[in-house]
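Structure (tokenized):
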């Protein structure tokens, strides 16, 4: 059940997910229960189960006007650079 997700124990997370839901609503893409389940799954994965990182990811999505969630920009760039380096070493 969504409300039992451990991230919801943190009030800052609750504020962030509510802000994200509000942003989606304004974009005429309301956050359905199915979408929320997928978003939570990605947040757990991208944040390595750290609620503070999940909050930053939600804040990034709100700030950039994203309808979804993505790894933090600096972490995504590091990941991309690492993958590029590995490909060029082969």
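Design, position by position:
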């Amino acid at each position: 059940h969504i409300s039992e997700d451990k991230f919801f124990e943190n009030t800052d997370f609750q504020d962030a997910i509510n802000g994200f839901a509000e942003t989606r609503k304004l974009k005429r893409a309301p956050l359905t229960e199915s979408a929320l389940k997928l978003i939570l799954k990605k947040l757990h994965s991208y944040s390595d189960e750290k609620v503070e990182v999940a909050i930053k990811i939600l804040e990034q999505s709100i700030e950039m006007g994203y309808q979804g969630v993505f790894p933090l920009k600096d972490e995504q760039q590091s990941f991309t650079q690492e993958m590029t380096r590995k490909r060029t070493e082969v």
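Reviewer-requested clarification: The chain is about 70% helix and 0% strand. Residues 26 and 33 are 17 Å apart (CA to CA).
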